[in-house]
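Module 6 notes. Inverse folding takes a fixed backbone as the condition and produces residue identities as the prediction. Think of it as a translation problem where the source language is geometry and the target language is the twenty amino acids. Below is one complete input and output pair. Work through it position by position during the lab.
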């Protein structure tokens, strides 16, 4: 058995040898929010946080996660920034087929956590590895801008 932390919980997985993180998340842990898009690290649909940094889970071997923390869209969407980002993505009409949405949400949450006041260039750079074939990028960027403002407003002392 191999141990690692996922979404704040210690987890054990039997077969880690040469398996990709996305397969362990979806098949063993039944965390199906992370989507497999291209399988080559080009689309960003499978983005998760590994020790707080965004990675493409289709390019990470699960064994690389031993004694590390993995955070998936299921966890990210529960914190304030992630919840607000999800709301703004829906409001902006920035979700359609849903394949890219989990990766966009994880990446945008990572950005807002590290930079509470990102400008448009920061957002576009952060999301440059997340491909969307349905909505176009303007609604996504606008949603992240709106969410970042809301998150920043919540952080300001009353």
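Target side of the pair, the amino acids:
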């Amino acid at each position: 058995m191999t141990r690692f932390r996922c979404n704040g919980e210690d987890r054990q997985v039997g077969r880690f040898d040469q398996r990709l993180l996305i397969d362990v998340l979806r098949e063993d842990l039944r965390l199906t929010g992370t989507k497999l898009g291209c399988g080559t690290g080009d689309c960003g649909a499978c983005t998760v946080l590994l020790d707080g940094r965004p990675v493409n889970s289709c390019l990470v071997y699960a064994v690389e996660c031993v004694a590390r923390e993995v955070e998936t869209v299921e966890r990210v969407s529960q914190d304030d920034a992630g919840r607000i980002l999800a709301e703004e993505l829906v409001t902006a009409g920035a979700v359609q087929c849903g394949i890219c949405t989990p990766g966009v949400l994880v990446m945008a949450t990572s950005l807002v956590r590290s930079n509470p006041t990102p400008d448009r260039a920061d957002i576009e750079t952060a999301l440059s590895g997340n491909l969307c074939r349905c909505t176009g990028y303007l609604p996504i960027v606008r949603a992240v801008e709106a969410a970042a403002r809301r998150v920043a407003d919540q952080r300001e002392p009353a």
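Reference fact for the lab report: The chain is about 40% helix and 15% strand.
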